[in-house]
Design a protein that fits this description.
The complex is a heterodimer. By secondary structure, chain A is an alpha/beta fold. Chain A is built from 15 helices and 11 strands. Chain A has helices at about 10-15, 25-35, 50-60, 105-110, 155-160, 175-185, 215-225, 270-285, 300-315, 335-345, 350-360, 365-390, 415-420, 425-430, 460-475, and strands at about 45, 70-75, 115-120, 165-170, 185-190, 210-215, 255-260, 290-295, 395-400, 435-440, 445-455. In chain A, strands 4-6-5-10-11-9-7-8 form an 8-stranded mixed sheet, with helices on both faces. The longest helix of chain A is centred in the C-terminal third of the chain and has 22 residues, at about 365-390. Chain B has a domain at about 5-45: Histone, subunit A, CATH 1.10.20. The model of chain B has no long low-confidence stretch (mean pLDDT about 90). Chain B is mainly alpha-helical. Helix content of chain B is about 35%, strand content about 0%. Chain B has helices at about 5-15, 20-40, 75-80. Classes of the chains: A alpha/beta, B mainly alpha. Chains A and B meet through helix 9, helix 10, helix 11, helix 12 and helix 13 of A and helix 1, helix 2 and helix 3 of B.
Chain lengths: ~475, ~100
Amino acid sequence: MSDITKQSLTELVENIENKKLSSTDVTKAFIDRSEKSEKLNAYITNDFTSALDKAKKFDQKPNFDLKLPGIPMAVKDLFCTKNIKTTAGSKILNNFIPTYESTVTENIWNEGAILLGKLNCDEFAMGSSNETSFFGNVQSPIDKNLVPGGSSGGSASAVAGQLTPVTIGTDTGGSIRQPASFTGIVGLKPTYGSCSRYGIVAFASSLDQAGPMAQNVKDCALLHEVISSYDPKDSTSIDFKRKHYSKELTNNIKGKKIGIPKEYRVDGMPKEIEDLWQKGIQYIKDCGAETIDISLPNTSYALPTYYIVAPAEASSNLARYDGVKYGFRAKGENLIDMYERTRSEGFGAEVQRRIMIGTYVLSSGYYDAYYLKAQKVRKLIKNDFDEAYKKVDAILTPSTPSSAFKIGEKTNDPVSMYLNDIFTVPVNLAGLPGISIPAGHDSKGYPLGLQIIGKAFDEQNILNIAYAMEEKINFKNKITDWWIK
Amino acid sequence: MSIDLKTIKHISKLARISVDEQRAEKLAGDLNSIFDFIEKLNELKTDNIEPLTSIAETTLKLRSDEVKSKNIREQIIKNSPQDNEDYFVVPKVIE
């Protein structure tokens, strides 16, 4: 079967359960394709040899009751994997071997999946184009020299390029949804507290969430069902009854009320994005749901708020990288000099920039003016959503204000890079779930995504809406295998 | 508002990241453009707004303080940048 890597997760699971394919067949196919895809630079570390061993072991004693029976899977290199190097895309962690496993990856392996390797990402997940990784740019399978988005760029590239059937990324301000949109795949950022943050390299703890990235909504629902769990090891993990998201998936969304927020019609937004949004509204109506114009008045303040809150939390989280206990260490004349040189040589430019912003807004004399102000505006942004959800069940917006851009196009202007996340950041600030689904192409043939935002813990509802829309949209990703000779 | 080189030096000291002159100038430029963008928040009146300190509206759970990971010293020390079986080694701090 030469088309194994083209199959969806759901198809692969079925074929393994029906013994039409073995775990070894599937694992081999994804390893072969990953080896031919070095040009994409999607992997930082591969674990192919032991993946094959694990697949053979699975086939000798298969357990088809598991949700991911013998399914190979690569994951973002922000998840700690026991005894396997975990770098967070940074020089400062380039030799770090965790002694523990993140809860979400443990959930995945417990359901029978097999680790293929660790996927490239922006350094400490800080970036929107995968250009800040110490391990180099990731190429998009959509076109040569095109960014896959970020920070889960390696993850997006690997799913769209069929190097892994599905994957998990993390989303602090859009890091799952924006790359999913750029590469024509589905990406879900779950409700804050739905997936454990234990064992995920921390960026901004009040915003970070892990989530699934897949070729279609059903696969996404299945993987979400596996990773979402209550975890006492994460004090912000919420103990609520999780659903069988994939089993309960339905395309019947008749009578649902979907809000269309006027503030997302931003200045300078390309007509293609507006047209896509209008098409999305039509699809919603075709599905028997109703659209309602709503207002989220503080939307334009979300990005400035995010660029205070996220760097503030990052500056505190990243204080642990001091060259003492693990990771890279530079030589210094004394202890302080060693710290300062280690952090100067070990962190890349974007990470240093954000630590500096965070340190400044938390420093004496500026805390009230910036950090406290941002927390208050964050409250206003959350109130906007609370108010809107009195009238609607979910909200439809574009995922990004443009399609993917070329490598190097925005690296010299941090603010223009940050504007990529204008539609995704409010969701993180309010702790809500959001899903990006591929919905069309621009004039260059690059994918464009639509975002559905839900109420807290209402993942099933946005998955259902996404599922119904997916059927109407009938999106086909244009993957030419340009990187394979 | 403008962030000058002196401020950059001060922040870099607080953040324990050494920056040379060239980088300090680049950082000052970047931070100024980022803060220009952040200043937009001043348009909003927020005097009577409660700050949002936690998105999860639940109280933190308590648990008993038990040791769960045992005998992992060797593994932990292995990640230390400077080899030593028993301790983390740092440059001399006492003259």
